Amino acid sequence: MIQTLGISIIVALIGYFILDIFVDGVLQDPFAKTVVYAFQRLGMQEEEAIHLYRLIFWQNKVLIIGAGFFALLLFSFYLGMSKFTNYLREVEGGIQMILNESDDKIVLSDTLEPLENRLNEIKETLKEQRRSLEESEQRKNDLIVYLAHDLKTPLTSVIAYLSLLNEAKDMPEEQREKYIGISLSKAKRLGELINEFFEITRYNLQNITLDKKEFYLYVLLEQVLDSFDPVFQEKGLQCTIEVDDRILIYGDPDRLARVFENLLRNAVSYCYPHSKIEVYGAIKGENAEIIVRNQGKTIPAHQLENLFEKFYRLDEARSSESGGAGLGLAIAKEIIELHNGTIQADSRDGYTSFIIRLPRKKEEL
């Protein structure tokens, strides 16, 4: 655009130069004599040639020069805009490469180097996003296959034991109670697997919104831990809580309760039997820091990076009785970030910790 404007200014100066020099300036007389001479060569008398010159050029000099200047201006504008149009075609080609998911690098003119770099950045970002979505979708599909396969096992057991109970009317009471207990256990597991299918569907459809209010963190954590007592007892786990009871949080207590439930469920799934789960909470500047820690197999660093991705499960969870849909930590991360907080995982020396930082309300003394 600057080049086009510059060319137009040059054309205007040339037009002014022609008007001033050739028509009104020092070259007026030579120009007039040349035109009259040309007319005479066509067979006119001198007076007729002079009259025709005045009629055509002298009386219409402004119109002629204006028309010439306008034509020259259009030509110069065309030259300038043709280059600009070429730039637009190059950019269009680059955008088309992005839409076509081409693996080739976008190359534009040197003048468009900043735009070239930006388009290549966008191309790589979109490529990475597509790759992540494809991996997530593949993990989801794999998980559904695993769950569908896992559904057969408890269902087959339930049918088998119920069939035995139905056929053996004179079965000893002790054996009958044993089969009923196994059937009930398998039926519960079947219900858990069905809930995981619903969890997968809900995650894709839900839009998490917050209903914020002020509450004490310690009270919330105690309520959540109380609900896990039967689970802790079943696996022989101890749970300790050391949380500053002055910490006030301004957030959605129901959503944050779900976060801690997911973290505790994850800790139960991957901790050693008869080990300890610890929950700590302290004031760190303007934030509250909460740590959920369990003793279990150390998670490799490359797997730690993927823990918060949806539908991601550690390999050993696929064959376990308590492996979930791989959504708990992804949902926890989303809820924490909606509260302008952060969550990260750390695993070393047989201990795995999830560290949460949440903005807090100043405590009331």
Describe this structure in words.
The chain is of the alpha+beta class and 365 residues long. It has three domains: 2-104, no CATH class; 123-205, Signal transduction histidine kinase, dimerisation/phosphotransfer (DHp) domain (Helix Hairpins); 213-361, Heat Shock Protein 90, CATH 3.30.565. The protein has eleven helices and seven strands. Strands 1, 2, 3, 4, 5, 6 and 7 form a seven-stranded mixed sheet that branches. A hairpin with a 2-residue loop joins strand 4 (276-284) and strand 5 (287-295). Helix 1 (2-23) runs antiparallel to helix 4 (61-99). It is elongated and about 140 Å long. The chain starts with a helix and ends with a strand.
Query: What's the shape?
Result: elongated
CATH class of the largest domain: Alpha Beta
Number of helices, counting only DSSP H or I runs of 4 residues or more: 11
Order of helices and strands: HHHHHHEHHEEHEEHHEE
Structural class: alpha+beta
CATH architecture title of the largest domain: 2-Layer Sandwich
Number of domains: 3
Keywords:
single chain; 365 residues; alpha+beta; Helix Hairpins; Heat Shock Protein 90; 7-stranded mixed β-sheet; BphY/WalK/GraS-like; kinase
